[in-house]
Design goal:
The structure is a homodimer.
Chain A (H helix, E strand, L loop, with lengths): L7 H6 L4 H9 L2 H15 L14 H21 L4 H11 L4 H16 L2 H12 L5 E4 L15 E5 L4 E5 L7 E2 L10 E10 L2 E11 L12 E5 L15 E5 L2 E4 L8 E3 L5 E3 L6 H34 L18 H36 L6 H29 L11 H8 L9 H17 L17 H6 L13 H23 L5 H7 L1 H25 L7 H19 L1 H6 L5 H18 L3 H6 L5 H4 L10 H9 L13 H9 L9
Parallel strand pairs in A: 1-5, 2-5
Antiparallel strand pairs in A: 2-3, 3-9, 4-8, 5-6, 7-8, 10-11
Helix pairs in contact in A: 2-3, 3-5, 6-7, 6-8, 8-9, 8-10, 9-10, 9-16, 9-17, 10-11, 10-12, 10-16, 12-14, 12-16, 14-16, 16-17, 17-19
Bound molecules: flavin-adenine dinucleotide (FAD) (2 copies) and calcium ion (CA).
One flavin-adenine dinucleotide sits at the interface of chains B and A.
């Protein structure tokens, strides 16, 4: 069997240059080269094996993660990997670990909120991992509402220290990754109290554990918060609980870039603009959107490859059955997810640009685009993570029964992914923020203030309120400007309708609360428009490679028309399209599926994922699914003995009608 | 803290008699009494503890399940429990086990497909559990398409035996629950071959393991297929793999109720009608629908109780924050699921009636309603299991971060539930069957053949194609006949539209394949109508108890209008309602949420679930969530030591920059 490629036939059907598509997916030839190299490095290193992950006990799993993290760090040093290379290495190791929080939250928090001196003191330690840090914001009783945190940091002017304290059970820090067992330090968010006055929530660098014996320092209680969703999955992470009993830290460990406490206990707002923190947020959310496209594409890759191997029904004259990927129902569930993966990839790439843009403007003290950038990233985080979580589970279902086995890779991928809908902002809470921004934008339309960035189309609201969709035959739906106008009109009209309904309330906050479910729908419409428009913009670039652009056009149309079909109620009730046009869109969609079909395998090959990264038998590159499933089964610990442990005590007495005397 | 009820205030707000609602939910006072008694019995027996389930290794989990099954059987015998009591006992033990397949599939298969003699021989053994059986249909390469199974049963007329054989790797039996480690016998589905001729797939009773030492019999290879989704969850089940190498069984172990092989190897169709097997299918699917309402109501109970405890934002003057259940977005996600749980309950109760009806008709040789009953149960299985799987995950998200902890109970509930979308018929494959039936129904409308049962409304197709929804103000949507007509018109029009589009194809099979995604949508519309109409019918009964009927009316309206809102595209594009009417429905929905709000806790109390059954800290009856979460965390094995295993080898060398020399 060695060397047989069961997808050979599929691959030869492709109508485009896969290698060129890999570059488009990666973002550049250089990124493809680096990521490809790191992917192979990880795949070829036995130390990074993960095929047994779902079978390990929590303790073994966790210890294994510590080993992998240390090994990774060793390799990073030995090979003198760049920051970019190291980050790809961690990506392919594909195991949540304390290092994610250290690099992804602790270091950025100090960079973003620390003064120059603080950065000079702490960052070199963190860069060398002489300290390991986490991000301790959430508490047992407080998450989304950060301003409601209860932990206190009371300034003691006598000793020039802050006293960090957990006054209640609900003030216990709860959830921070890396906290439970590993971190030596944390950025702790606490209410600043000086002279009995509450100055709101600020960040403090607190040492948690001794650098000598790793024991928690006096006054500190720490532990792991226990098992989370799934086997393997996020259980490799030590999300932790932390309580402070009057723990003292020097004054200079408050992060003081924007707000300072002086030696005398006076509070001073620095001249650094508060908005700076939004820059970090844009950065973090951009990485989340990019992670969404990775996770979704991974699931889609598995489901697509397996759908080409799996056959059910339709055998004629004893010949092979039909590949399930040839069923239109399978295509109508799978191909929109394939298209979404590409769509999220491109909007993620655009967010990288947005982050640079925002950073440059901040440096030039231009804050004008910040609220829009903030709303836009909040919305895209919400949209892409929700769609990805649902999409992974749909991919699992697309694999029928075998998708339920851990060896399919999909259960673990789902379990490890879903919290992205909750952390870094609960998706509904974020959409409400977007809605708030949209209502503000609409309300200012009359005032001459021009909406910017992704809300610029609102400036054409008068046109959008009355435009008519020009589609007369199915192919008309292939026109990007037709699609764009329909999505713009729908979003504008939904926002305007919400604003009109809001204006009927005497108290606008009450109105916002009462209409919040509708407002969330308007926010979703706006965010979908952003993704569609960024895909269309991408297609305006020159894209080299035989047939590459053509495939992307097909995917872009699938993405847009699938959204239109799924949310057709929005389009119809706002009068943006007619029922007839909706049905033409549906017809066009079917024809697009037929066009995508021969390219499906090549389109997922373009993600350039190694079998190690996919960790899915159903998704393996060569499609040799059945022997691999069969062999993997026998590795389960319950197969160590033919007769199971417990037979003598529990099964035999039952069969022999001797339970009465059994001790159970 | 002992004895405090944090939901006290909520409970006192309820506007109806909870005890009476419990009876409605249970189906009768008698069922409530039995289920309540069994629920308490399980909860009070230490042997049935399950709070540590997600922390156990696969082997420990499995052994524990064997112990529980033996203990349950012992109690059933000791207490001389009736069949009904025993089945409630297993329900509350709440752990997938080989007994599910023994009682739920093996015994019914023999009852349904065995001759009288076969039943007399095998059933007493099975009833006493002197043999343990499973249901071995699915193969590694064949699931949905049962006719494609590869296992062979070749008749050897010389020895009067069948030779059971697995000719290929893909013919290995794969998935049967209880097979991997426990079952002594199986009903094996295999292609019957006599004289080189293939007579299609039939069932055979095959002994798998020795009743003396539990070793597989000669020629038989068996094992467990390995880890499945989630920790705990379905991993307590030994889904198995099975290969036959020319295994011989006596001729009388073929299940011969409808099809017989004589001593001479002749195949004879018996005079028992083939349709009989459909009766079993209706029965099995009815239990699946009832399980859906149990699983969904359980998730909803957890999310509702926690939403009343959890507070975020909106604190005024330092007072408590707002209960998240008071946010309209939370309500618009949660209350439709609460309403769905009730809706599925009632349609499940109706299916019990349908099963009796079908059985009686079968006995009277009346097969006229069978195709309709078959399509209806297929559709309801698909609809309720899909909605329940999605609903559980939505409930988990409604709990924010804490829903991701295993101690919330929701991850395990999701993981254990989702395969219901796949087994007993993949949900899409089932909807395609429904669609086929609908198309047949529509095509026969002209012929004078009156559609029956749940398709009876199609007989009024002419009216339904042209009726106009009469809603003029929001309250008009409270009228059941208005709702019913809208759902009937939508479903009829979607089916007719599909039929018209199908007629454009020269080859109707090709047309069906091409339009299958639309056909699935028409099938969903039909199934939703069934659920809505059965809820409305329920409300036509006399329902005693203060305020009980009123609450059910609210829930029925929420269910219907939420569907209407979510699928508004269907209603608009078929012209069943206008955009204005859609917006009035939405308005009415908001007001219904406000009416449900004060009753929410009482409405989930009416499920009468013990804390043991819920196994969720977030859902505990007294609402004392935070101390319980905090205490539970410390029980995780990684908290056994303060400094984690692996510190010396992996963390310390990292911190001390000594990795270079470390052996990892
Ligand atoms: C795997 C994981 C890792 C994490 N890592 C970290 C970490 O490293 N550091 C850290 O500090 N934290 C971490 N967290 C915590 C995370 O940031 C919070 O869980 C998240 O912010 C959500 O807050 P919550 O849990 O309080 O949800 P809640 O806000 O309690 O959500 C419960 C429900 O209330 C609703 N709701 C809340 N507010 C409103 C409103 N105003 N209007 C309408 N509805 C509302 C939500 O939509 C949701 O349905 C992590 C969490 C997870 C799951
Ligand atoms: C937890 C669990 C327990 C089980 N227990 C048992 C048991 O006890 N005994 C037993 O015999 N089996 C058992 N099974 C097997 C189960 O019955 C099958 O998995 C199920 O029938 C689905 O079949 P499949 O896996 O072949 O899916 P497939 O049919 O391969 O599905 C793959 C995809 O193809 C699509 N598809 C298939 N056919 C068509 C079509 N004609 N048109 C359009 N799309 C199509 C499906 O919609 C799906 O998206 C169990 C499975 C699970 C997960
Ligand atoms: Ca919809």
């Amino acid at each position: 069997m060695e060397g047989i490629d069961y997808h050979d036939g599929e691959r030869s059907k492709a109508e485009f240059d896969v290698e060129e598509m890999k570059i488009v997916w990666a973002g550049s030839r250089e990124v493809l080269e680096v990521s490809d190299r790191m992917g192979r490095l990880v795949a070829s290193d036995e130390a990074f094996r993960k095929d047994n992950r779902t079978m390990l006990s929590r303790k073994d799993l966790f210890k294994n993660t510590l080993r992998k993290a240390a090994h990774a760090w060793k390799r990073i040093i030995e090979l003198r990997l760049s920051e970019q290379e190291a980050s790809w290495l961690r990506f392919y190791i594909d195991e949540p670990a304390f290092t994610d929080l250290h690099w992804g939250m602790f270091v950025p928090a100090i960079k973003g909120q620390g003064t120059d001196e603080q950065q000079q003191k702490w960052l070199p330690l963190a860069y060398k991992m002489q300290i390991i840090g986490c991000y301790a914001q959430t508490e047992l009783g407080h998450g989304s509402n950060v301003q409601g945190l209860e932990t206190t940091a009371t300034f003691d002017s006598q000793s020039d220290e802050f006293v960090i304290h957990s006054p209640t059970l609900t003030s216990s820090k709860w959830w921070p990754g890396g906290l439970g067992k590993v971190s030596t330090h944390a950025v702790v968010y606490a209410r600043l109290i000086t002279d009995g006055q509450d100055h709101g929530v600020h960040g403090f660098i607190v040492q948690l554990r001794s650098l000598e014996d790793h024991l928690p320092l006096p006054g500190i209680t720490i532990g792991d918060i226990g098992m989370k969703f799934g086997n393997g999955g996020y259980n490799s992470m030590d999300n932790g609980v932390l309580r402070f009993d009057h723990v003292r830290i020097p004054r200079d460990q408050m992060l003081m870039r924007v707000f300072q406490v002086t030696r005398e206990g006076k509070c001073v707002q620095s001249n650094v603009p508060r908005q700076l923190v939004y820059g970090t947020m844009v950065f973090v959310r951009q990485t989340i959107v990019s992670d969404a496209s990775s996770a979704l594409s991974r699931a889609v890759c598995i489901a697509t490859r397996y759908s080409a191997v799996r056959r059910q029904f339709g055998s004629q004259n004893g010949g092979p059955e039909t590949q399930v990927i040839d069923y239109k129902t399978q295509q109508s569930r799978l191909f929109p997810l394939l298209a979404s993966a590409y769509a999220f990839r491109f909007v993620g790439q655009w967010l990288k640009w947005l982050y640079t843009d925002v950073t440059q403007r901040l440096q030039a003290n231009d804050f004008s685009t910040l609220p829009e950038a903030h709303a836009c990233t909040a919305g895209l985080k919400s949209l892409t993570t929700s769609a990805t979580a649902d999409g992974i589970e749909e991919c699992r279902k697309l694999c029928g029964g075998h998708g339920y086995l851990c060896s399919s890779g999909l259960p673990e991928l789902f379990a490890v992914y879903v919290p992205a809908c909750t952390y870094e902002g609960d998706n509904i809470v974020l959409l409400l923020q977007v809605a708030r921004f949209l209502m503000k934008t609409v309300s200012q339309l009359g005032s001459g203030k021009q909406p910017v960035g992704t809300t610029a189309y609102m400036g054409r609201v008068a046109d959008l309120m009355q435009c008519c969709c020009a589609v007369q035959k199915a192919e008309d739906w292939l026109n990007p400007s037709v699609i764009l106008e329909a999505f713009e009109a729908r979003s504008a009209r939904m926002s305007v309708a919400c604003a009109q309904n809001l204006s009927k309330f005497a108290n606008s906050e009450e109105g916002f609360a009462e209409l919040s479910a509708d407002l969330v729908e308007a926010a979703v419409a706006h965010c979908q428009l952003i993704v569609v428009s960024k895909f269309i913009e991408k297609l305006e670039e020159a894209i080299p490679g035989k047939g590459v652009k053509r495939q992307l056009e097909i995917l872009c149309n699938i993405y847009a028309l699938y959204l239109l079909h799924n949310y057709v109620g929005d389009f119809l009730s706002t009068g943006c399209i007619t029922p007839k046009q909706a049905s033409l869109a549906n017809e066009q969609l079917r024809s697009l599926y037929a066009q995508a079909r021969p390219n499906a395998i090549a389109l997922v090959d373009a993600f350039n994922y190694t079998d190690h990264y996919l960790s899915s038998i159903l998704g393996c590159y060569d499609g040799n699914v059945y022997p691999k499933l069969y062999d993997a089964a026998w590795k389960d610990p319950v197969n160590e003995s033919v007769v199971p442990d417990g037979y003598q005590q529990y099964i035999r007495p039952m069969l022999k009608q001797q339970l009465r005397n059994a001790r159970l």
